[in-house]
Amino acid sequence: MSTVQVAVFLIITALIAFATYMHCRGKRGSGPQDERDYFLANGGLAWYFVAGSITLTNLSTDQLIGMNGNQMALLAWWEFAAVAGLFILAFVFLPIYYRNNCTTTTELLQKKYGDKHIRALISLLFLFGNLFIFLPAILYGGSLFLLSLTGQETDLATIMTVSVVIAIVGAAYAIFGGLRAVAVSDTYSGVLVLGLALLVVFLALQAIDFDLSGIPAERLTLIGNNDSPIPWHTLLTGMIFIQTFYWSTNQTITQRAMAAPNIKEAQKGVLVAAGIRLLIVPIIVVVPGIVSYKMFGDVGDPAYGMIVGEVLPVWLSGAFAAAIFAAVLTTFNSILNASAALYVCDMHEAYVGDVKRVGRLGAIVSIVMSLLALALVPFFASQESLINTVQQLYGLLSMPILSAFVVGLAFRNVKAAAAMIGVVTGVVFYGFWSMVWEPAHYIHGMAVTLVLAIATSLIVNLLIFGQRAELAIGNASEPDPAAA
Fold first, then answer.
1. Which of 210, 204, 238, 237 is nearest to 71 (CA)?
2. Where does residue 413 fall: left (phi above 0), alpha (psi -120 to 50 degrees), or beta otherwise?
3. Which of 271, 344, 335, 270 is nearest to 106 (CA)?
4. In whole angstroms, what is the distance from residue 144 CA to residue 130 CA?
5. Domains of the chain (ranges, CATH numbers)
6. pLDDT tens per residue across span 12-66
7. Global pTM?
């Protein structure tokens, strides 16, 4: 890495941190010990911070590295489908969260079922997903990109060293700033990331004279065959459920929208994020990868770092390294902040007692999860495709979790224990489908898992608990009469 690259990297990284500090200084309500301030920015996020934070929390190296690493246009479907997921969040789930005054998405489950145990179970699954899947994937992807960009060795020891740096700085943001600092740094970084990523697209196409000839047709099509990462028929089954889960029930994402001063401001931010997801993100997560195939061949996950290092001038590559570093940090600290919220609000307060020092307990959770995530980086370094591994593994949790929300919102007179049995059944079934049986694509398996988990909940509710579920009609915020 040249002196110019290092200098530009350090200057931009410092400027983002300073701008975040200046914006957040003096804006805490009762300090970081106040739960609403620490986890929901005291309801003070304007729509542009909601949009910026949602965009960059999702748009990190697992997208830029993983999707470009597939080196095919087909991966854009993850982003097109995400637009539908954001609309479902804006107009279906957000009104329910705001009416029920929720701090965490799982709090809604406790209010619908009248049982703290289902809230804790779903929080535990979210925490497992954050710890064993997302945090180590982000550390690995970020380290791989920075090393590939600068032409450094990408051996495991070097990757682990960079991962440690990312984990330390990312945890510091989450610990000392709470959600407000996370969201503000997200937005400032997001402007830089999106701008430079679009520039990379243009320069990459310019490098091949805008000529895509010679690239195999299967890498340019949006209609996937049965052997592709996204067969076309999966768009008709599990894809929409995956997006509903991720954008509407995942604490890491919804926490930003729940931190706006009112529902209208939150919806405005979510819809702007949907516009960015439709118009900008698909281009930046597939075009550089396709171009890199023509320039370097089938290189896999290192493709994005290689193309950026090839087409950007030295000083701009330093700026882009700073932008990606910021994106990795903001995604990492966003997940840490959401994880702390889940543990503190859904588990510690329910089973241990009231928390007098929210910030301190949140810091402990963040540090422990950071250390454990670092230990899992070698597993992701051994995988063929980062994004495909992340998506397939998360199916273990996503559809079972979504089943609890669907049953709780769509039906009344369902025991929490019945829904919990449905969730556990879903986890076991998907694990068998995707890792042992493998009769069809894992996205199809997600759809089957969701239906099975819901059906199990309703059948158990009837046969074991003797209660017939009733289709919910009317105000979704009304308490569930079943829960007593």
1. 204
2. left
3. 344
4. 20
5. 3-387 (1.20.1730.10)
6. 888 888 888 888 776 554 444 456 777 787 788 999 999 988 998 888 767 888 8
7. 0.90
